[in-house]
Amino acid sequence: MIDSDDDALTTLDLDADRLHEECGVFGVYGHPDAAALTALGLHALQHRGQEAAGIVSRDKHRFHAERRLGLVGDHFSDARVIARLPGRSAIGHNRYSTTGETILRNVQPLFAELDAGGMAVAHNGNLTNALTLRRELVRAGAICQSTSDTEVILHLVAQSRRPRIIDRFVNALREIEGAYALVALTPKKLIGARDPLGIRPLILGELDGCHILTSETCALDIIGAKYVRDIENGEVVIISEDGIQSLKPFPPQRMRPCIFEFVYFARPDSVVQGQSVYEVRKNMGVELARESAPEADVIVPIPDSGVPAAIGFSRESGIPFELGIIRNHYVGRTFIQPTQGVRELGVRMKHSANRSQIAGKRIVLVDDSLVRGTTSLKIVKMMRDAGAKEVHFRLACPPITHSDFYGIDTPEREKLLAATHTLEEMRQFIGADSLAFLSVDGLYRAMGYEGRDKNLPEFTDHCFTGDYPTPLTDLAGETPRQLSLIAEAS
Amino acid sequence: MIDSDDDALTTLDLDADRLHEECGVFGVYGHPDAAALTALGLHALQHRGQEAAGIVSRDKHRFHAERRLGLVGDHFSDARVIARLPGRSAIGHNRYSTTGETILRNVQPLFAELDAGGMAVAHNGNLTNALTLRRELVRAGAICQSTSDTEVILHLVAQSRRPRIIDRFVNALREIEGAYALVALTPKKLIGARDPLGIRPLILGELDGCHILTSETCALDIIGAKYVRDIENGEVVIISEDGIQSLKPFPPQRMRPCIFEFVYFARPDSVVQGQSVYEVRKNMGVELARESAPEADVIVPIPDSGVPAAIGFSRESGIPFELGIIRNHYVGRTFIQPTQGVRELGVRMKHSANRSQIAGKRIVLVDDSLVRGTTSLKIVKMMRDAGAKEVHFRLACPPITHSDFYGIDTPEREKLLAATHTLEEMRQFIGADSLAFLSVDGLYRAMGYEGRDKNLPEFTDHCFTGDYPTPLTDLAGETPRQLSLIAEAS
Amino acid sequence: MIDSDDDALTTLDLDADRLHEECGVFGVYGHPDAAALTALGLHALQHRGQEAAGIVSRDKHRFHAERRLGLVGDHFSDARVIARLPGRSAIGHNRYSTTGETILRNVQPLFAELDAGGMAVAHNGNLTNALTLRRELVRAGAICQSTSDTEVILHLVAQSRRPRIIDRFVNALREIEGAYALVALTPKKLIGARDPLGIRPLILGELDGCHILTSETCALDIIGAKYVRDIENGEVVIISEDGIQSLKPFPPQRMRPCIFEFVYFARPDSVVQGQSVYEVRKNMGVELARESAPEADVIVPIPDSGVPAAIGFSRESGIPFELGIIRNHYVGRTFIQPTQGVRELGVRMKHSANRSQIAGKRIVLVDDSLVRGTTSLKIVKMMRDAGAKEVHFRLACPPITHSDFYGIDTPEREKLLAATHTLEEMRQFIGADSLAFLSVDGLYRAMGYEGRDKNLPEFTDHCFTGDYPTPLTDLAGETPRQLSLIAEAS
Amino acid sequence: MIDSDDDALTTLDLDADRLHEECGVFGVYGHPDAAALTALGLHALQHRGQEAAGIVSRDKHRFHAERRLGLVGDHFSDARVIARLPGRSAIGHNRYSTTGETILRNVQPLFAELDAGGMAVAHNGNLTNALTLRRELVRAGAICQSTSDTEVILHLVAQSRRPRIIDRFVNALREIEGAYALVALTPKKLIGARDPLGIRPLILGELDGCHILTSETCALDIIGAKYVRDIENGEVVIISEDGIQSLKPFPPQRMRPCIFEFVYFARPDSVVQGQSVYEVRKNMGVELARESAPEADVIVPIPDSGVPAAIGFSRESGIPFELGIIRNHYVGRTFIQPTQGVRELGVRMKHSANRSQIAGKRIVLVDDSLVRGTTSLKIVKMMRDAGAKEVHFRLACPPITHSDFYGIDTPEREKLLAATHTLEEMRQFIGADSLAFLSVDGLYRAMGYEGRDKNLPEFTDHCFTGDYPTPLTDLAGETPRQLSLIAEAS
Q1: How far is CA D199 from CA C118, D109, D256, D272, D408, in A?
Q2: In this model, does residue C315 exceed pLDDT 50?
Q3: Interface test with D, best of A113, A114, A161, A186 (most D CBs within 10 A)
Q4: pLDDT at A343
Q5: Cα–Cα distance between B318 and A285 in angstroms, integer?
Q6: Would you state the pLDDT for residue A113?
Q7: What is the CATH number of domain B276-465?
């Protein structure tokens, strides 16, 4: 195959060098179409995890589960699958694996039979003391079937000595550290929980008088549900036949949601913490243009995630916005795959230069983030091969200098270009005529603040600043990242 | 499944009501990676046909064929498939079925063993006398294995009494009517042919000194090949070890390429007949704004094909361009399917309103064409549900009032909204506050002309004008469209 | 895998070295369950071909076809497949490929649209002048889509100038040579034909007043149909609403059916030419015991085809019959596969020695035939490894010294052990203490004759005698066996 | 489909009304081809369970697992699967589900990570207090991921407070009741255990100096391994680098192996407890003939399991043995399926009458057992339809009057024909001219005893006698058989 030339610019994958979120969650209580609504909600959240999906429903008598590797639309659009998920309550999960192998037994929601009845849990986030807890559990005689940190939560619930299931659940939450947005289903309740800092998102919606918990508003929009409010940081909500009840089992803390939801993860049509993601991204482009607009003929967005910032940049700078890179929509099923080998193989033929807008022009490429820089250099070369006179690269977020441990799949720190290179070195690496990033203060301005408040920053932003807001217990220990002693392919 | 409500606006498919092209073709002569290049070329041409794909290669001893239902990337990205296609020459084909069922035996290229050696043919277009010819062939004892009109060409070649294969091929061309761009492979030659009016496109490219024939320049770009020239109307080119030779077996006629390649089919980064498709589409938006720009707050393109015209419209009208409709990129394999039933089932959850850009605003929706109007009314309703104050609908092409018989999959005439409704009736049907189409003269102005020359129009434009440039022999006869007496599912 | 040791006796495949028939046919006229009956009939005939199966049905308006690679039970037990085959008449075919690649377009029944209406044909046998005819047809402008000799018959029908379809069919039969049992379906008729010598079998049955044509009586038994009579050699029967009509278009000849149907191919519960196959095989064992019973302790049949002869041998010789070799019934789908590679891979673990019946004993192995001898030597070694004191090998048919050209998949002559080795050399090759074959006269005695009548032999028996009953036209010419110039995998 | 007539005798499944064993186990220690040997061993044991199979191997660093639904040969004949199972030790399991749904998470071997290292377990048998133990474990905070009773053993091991893994394992064995043959793999040991009465079989073999544990000798024969001895009742063997060590952790009891291994389950070429299964079955036929041989013309075995007894019956009675029923070997993959629906659908067309041996004759049908009698009545009718003058039915085992709880899949007691009908009622039910069973004493005589010793019976024979040799704890409690609250399809 001609693809063996890894530098062939006409066949590059602009998504290969982005960050990846691991999960989306959805739960609904008391609706006759619970499983179908969950499937649609998961489909709207597909950008948060493409590797696997699962739904657990509950009818009067028992729980029902369907879990599949692959896209929601590939499996849960089948009416027979939905028919195997009866009941008026359901929770669902999209998975992108940060921890644990890609095997079916890791696909969430996970389920445990408890003395007081069963419980299913779906989790977005990452626990920073999961390995430490897991080691303790195994020592105490627990059997771990998956390699997922979600199972740790279930074991903590199972081993709690409190009689009520909700007390057991709160007990378990008090032992875990890190970032999480959880939805859990018991025979009579739908439970939601958000970590004490509210790092991962969780919102409350309503459809036909039924409550919904999910990661983003776009999962409400797809089914015509109303947005009610964001779940607060450290809040546990219990939805049952008696309505909704809220607990605050943690000491009060100021919320610090993850700023990357705005920069990259959330869908542009979602509203996060009260702000339109699309508007915020346009603002990032505006701020970026104010900080570093070059003289140029045309603004070219890196599709598709660079488009809103490029519109903002164009409007602020007055330089015309053009689709200088065309995306091929037909790429089969190979879009995102867990192994590097598969990525290289089939994923390359996705974008091409729109020569008529590039040749002989000074262009400004606008992208939302830069991780390793490996695709950025290919795209700069693609622009030059298409005849660009000058290529200026602008990033609508600050340099990513630190790894994440809260559920974002970042490379090891030494592979982050900005962690090991100066700005000029980065410019040379990607081969642009100029390179500029949005400043951290510019990012906060795009969010509506004066700048970053060093003492009380409004967001979790360690990737740009190194300021981790929770202890990193597992990292401190000598525990290997992969504890499991068994390997299984599928 | 909740999808049973067919009017649910949050779950509509903007591509369900567009026209569909039937084919893309590609051929290369004398290159060691002939099959791999063909696979990449077909992938770049995937927008021209998603139902099936095939490649036939030729090595010193024999022909090799691989034909598959589904996308190019799903099958021909597999190195083992390419390895089964040895040889330095190959032709390939993407199929969207206008004639004939979706079964493997209809997938092109088709092949026939001839007395003088075998011949494989791939065809983009539609013959307007295929059924008439087919009936005559069957009467004479020919056995038709497929229901494709391409097989008719092969039979005409097989039955010609001329000794040289190229003379047989030219003989066959003289019997067929309609639109075609053909690539054919014989043991020692690659042949290309374009119909006497040049309705369907065919271009000549070059890579590493080897000649390439294909439908669009984007198939050259993906492999880094150079564009040489368009094949002329009525031209037959013969590529062999002795280089390239050109025949003109028809009486000279003025070229009339299909204008729909510019309006909808060709990829925006392709250059057709010397013009950038992207630029032409932006111009259509500019002309449309000149003719009918309303007072409004925001221009919203129908993704993705309405984007270039919306950029032009925004620039000419001064109204800001915003992504008011967001496309969900994760839709599994169900994007385009041959039966209506399958379309309804799995294809719906593709777009959503970006409420922050719509609510409380006067919006202008810009689309490239309107066929039945069934999705347009859904999108207008989606905009109103998202809170739009006014919804103005603008089409960057004239009303489609006539069916096509040259390879575009148009509905029967009575199902074309513009064929049976006045402008005001159409506005009411789709529920917009105002509706306007680009004029036919405006369309020609966007192409660089003063307007349409009624006596000598530069393009085949019967869909807008009813001016069919060739006889429609089959239509005149009483032959049923589907002649085949055998049904087979796969 | 441990299987790489090709000589491992505990993992051998006793069916790897047998002859293979190529086809079974079935047709029914005027029954409401035509396709389902055909599927059941083909299932009963599965032993005649396991590679592919197909059914064509006819309702009032058109033909319907379903063709599949694999076993009948794997595909045609699906009610949805049967539902796609409406109509009151149907024909079907099981394929074992002697000519042509294993690709879907070679799977029968084949179909052609004719001027007078369509015709589907299913064929058991082999034409000895197919390649010669095919070359002439291609020269005359015919296009061959398959590499099957059945297509030649269809072309001859299509090109005949006679107005009535039955006359065209008879015309075609007059041009072909070799062995055939054909069933054909036209819009209003079911046609059967048997070659002038009656080499391949074809019988007439009846169910609920409807006529059935098929290869063996077991296909009647499975659906509870009655056997009516064997179709005569050189007879053409036409079944229509007017009942059944018989033609005899050839000069009268004495019948010479293939003796291998009795020796190996037909199912033991079938009655062929009025004789029970099971009884005949027992008689072969009786004759064999009369000719060459050794002193021994136990008779061990090679399962399963050696069992009837072993019972006869045991009864005649008085030596007890025991299951000394046990068949493992669980071998997945890998039983018979077209390539040698696949055979080696997964097919081996099928039989094991029943040590308690072998150890310390003098055993007589009874098998129905010996082709290459490669599995016979393995089985002798398996017996010795299990502790046999003496191993005597007895074959219930004469030495196979000549290849077949009438539809039996025999190896090239030089690979037939008996064609190149003396009896003593064969004994040494397989490592037995003694070896004996049934004599040709013994074989005829088992059939109820005095012996073989050299001047007017009652059966086609060239494999044992070299006496080919028809011209071998293709063999005389220089035509390569594989004419097709195109290769396609599936 | 014509199959809707459930009584159609030509399409019946003789295996639909037999008892089913649940499992076969295999383990090997210290061999370079450990996984491949295990795959071959499981293939030889395929008759003990066809629903799923799994292998766990151990190399220096970790465990590796592959588990699949379907036959061993369908999945583990693939070299790539074996390559994913590196290491010199492995255990494997064939499953027929008596407890727990057919889902991948129930497929054995099961695995648990323990504080002292991991442990994988494969189990043949059934625990009679598993549900009681499971309820206690869940109350104590354990999470059960499967619905298999094997997981209970793993939890007991995990929760034991003993430091050494072997002591934990023995502790666990002391808590369980019922029948079991276990093989377990730890990082450095292969462990085998057989229940205190030795109800389920487990034997020790040897290949190239390496120890093997498995269910039957046929699994040794397939790989050329030597039989060493049967594991004793209540024995635990530990195989490690230091050789083999034997523990006897239970109070001494006399062995009582399950007599059904001889009657039906074990392969005829296996040697169980020192006796050839084939010989024992022939003896059962001999004893049966002594007890109840009628005047008749022919002995017809029900294939394949009735054959050895029929040979014995024929020899003792002097009535000739003939294959009066022919098995069709081509039945696709549908042979045994877990749901009744699937069984009915595709499994029917398996046997046919060999009319030439039946018509006009007095026949004796010999079968190995009678459960519900539903297929027996079909086969009697099939014989009569084929023209039998008299049909005498003989069973080579006593009437089955009691259900099993030790790993044999028996129907509820009220569905056992012999539990609710007199001999004469049974004869009328199946429609035979006479009916007789082997007596219990006759069964013991066939095993080499004088008869059954009521005080100290040598075998577990409750199915014939109601004499259950262990407490049935779960049955006494009110626990529902299916405890799991979650349902999942695959």
Answers
A1: 66, 21, 6, 12, 11
A2: yes
A3: A113
A4: 32
A5: 20
A6: 83
A7: 3.40.50.2020
**Burial of residue C415 (number of CB atoms within 10 Å: 0-12, 13-18, 19+):** middle
Give the percent of chain D with pLDDT over 90: 61
- Nearest-CA distance B39 → chain A (Å): 9
Which residues of chain B does CATH 3.40.50.2020 include? 276-465
List, for residues A340-365, the tens digit of each pLDDT value.
332 332 334 677 899 999 999 999 99
What pLDDT score was predicted for residue D56? 96
DSSP string over C279-322 = HHHHHHHHHHHHHHPPS-SEEEEPTTTTHHHHHHHHHHH-PPB-
Chain B residue whose CA is closest to C490 = B66
B143 contacts C158 by C-beta, under 8 angstroms = yes
List every span in chain C annotated with CATH 3.40.50.2020. 276-328+338-452
To the nearest whole Å, the CA of B88 is away from the closest chain A CA by 14
Chains C vs A: touching, with 3+ CB pairs under 8 Å?
A: no
Identify the architecture of domain D279-454 in CATH. 3-Layer(aba) Sandwich (3.40)
Nearest CA in chain A to B37: A2
Is C80 near chain D, with CB under 8 Å?
no
Task: State the span(s) of chain A assigned CATH 3.40.50.2020.
Answer: 274-460
Q: Which residue of B has its CA nearest to A35?
A: B1
Percentage of chain D exceeding pLDDT 70: 87
D489 contacts on A by Cβ (under 8 Å): 66, 84
Please indicate whether residue B23 is annotated as part of the active site.
yes
C73 inside 8 A of chain D by CB: yes
Fold of D20-256: Glutamine Phosphoribosylpyrophosphate, subunit 1, domain 1 (3.60.20)
pTM of the model: 0.82
pLDDT digits (tens, 9 = 90+) for C130-154: 989 988 998 888 888 776 788 999 9
Inter-chain contact C330–D11, Cβ cutoff 8 Å? no
Q: What is the mean pLDDT of residues B186-204?
A: 97
H or E element at residue B206 = strand B203-207
Please check the confidence at residue A427 and state whether its pLDDT lies above 70: yes
Q: How confident is the model at residue A104 (pLDDT cuts 50, 70, 90)?
A: low
* End-to-end Cα spacing for chain B: 28
Neighbour-count burial of B36, counting CB atoms closer than 10 A to its CB (0-12 exposed, 13-18 middle, 19+ buried): buried
Say which CATH architecture domain A274-460 belongs to: 3-Layer(aba) Sandwich (3.40)
Q: Across chain D, what does the average pLDDT equal?
A: 86
Closest CA to B224 of A376, A8, A387: A8
Cα–Cα distance measured from residue A307 to residue A302, given in angstroms and rounded to the nearest whole number: 7
Q: Where in chain A is the domain with CATH 3.60.20.10?
A: 20-256
A141, D154: Cβ pair inside 8 Å?
A: no
In the block, which residue shows the tokens 């009494």? B161
- Cβ(C150)–Cβ(C106) below 8 Å: no
Contact call for residues B264 and B305 (beta carbons, < 8 A):
yes
Q: Is the pLDDT of residue C322 over 60?
A: yes
The interface predicted TM-score (ipTM) is 0.87
- Is A367 labelled as part of a ligand binding site? yes
Helix (H) and strand (E) counts for chain A?
A: 18, 24
Res B103: pLDDT: 59
Given the residues A23, A210, A258, A463, the one annotated as active site: A23
What b/e readout covers A339-377, taking b as 16+ CB neighbours within 10 angstroms? eeeebebbbbbbbbbbbbbbeebbbbbbbbbbbbbbbbb
What's the CA gap between D257 and B199, in Å, rounded? 84
Question: Can you name the CATH fold of C276-328+338-452?
Answer: Rossmann fold (3.40.50)
Task: Report the residue from C2, C268, C335 with minimal CB separation from D37.
Answer: C2
Backbone angles phi, psi at C63, to 5 degrees: -90, 155
Is the pLDDT at C448 greater than 80? The verdict is yes
